[in-house]
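Worked example 3 (structure in, sequence out).
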């Protein structure tokens, strides 16, 4: 009886080990492909991030030489461009190059009032939780004026 238990245990260990190696051999290439795919995706994401950071740095370089810096600091470029100041941003909102001239006609209030209390639903929600300070508002107005004069 003792020999039978020993033989059973040896067979069990050998079978378990063989099964492990067989399953690993069958699934091995799939695991490697999955790992390589994950590495490729991660590498592509890092490259995309580096490209975006480079574009932002270039925009900041362009804007740091003029009044457009405020648009980068406040995140306006996530939705807006100011092409007159060489600031390329998102396409969700309009280009702000002529906003200094057009806001009152479009929204019915002077630019400074619009920046304090926007009359558009989108801008109300954007600035509502994080309103511009007086200095920021003055910087935006100066930048928009400079953009409209170019």
């Amino acid at each position: 009886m003792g020999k039978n238990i020993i033989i059973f245990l040896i067979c069990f260990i050998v079978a378990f080990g063989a099964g492990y190696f067989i399953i690993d051999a069958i699934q091995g290439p799939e695991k490697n492909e999955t790992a390589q795919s994950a590495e490729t995706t991660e590498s592509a994401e890092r490259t995309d991030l580096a490209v975006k950071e480079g574009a932002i740095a270039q925009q900041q370089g362009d804007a740091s030489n003029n009044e457009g810096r405020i648009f980068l600091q406040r995140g306006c470029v996530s939705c807006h461009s100011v092409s007159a100041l060489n600031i390329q941003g998102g396409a969700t909102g309009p280009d702000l190059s002529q906003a200094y001239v057009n806001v009152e006609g479009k929204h019915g209030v002077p630019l400074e009032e619009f920046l304090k209390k926007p009359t558009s639903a989108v801008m109300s929600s954007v600035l509502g939780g994080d309103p511009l300070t007086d200095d920021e508002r003055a910087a935006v107005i100066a930048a928009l004026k400079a953009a409209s004069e170019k």
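Notes: The two ends are 99 Å apart (CA to CA). The chain has a mean pLDDT of 78.
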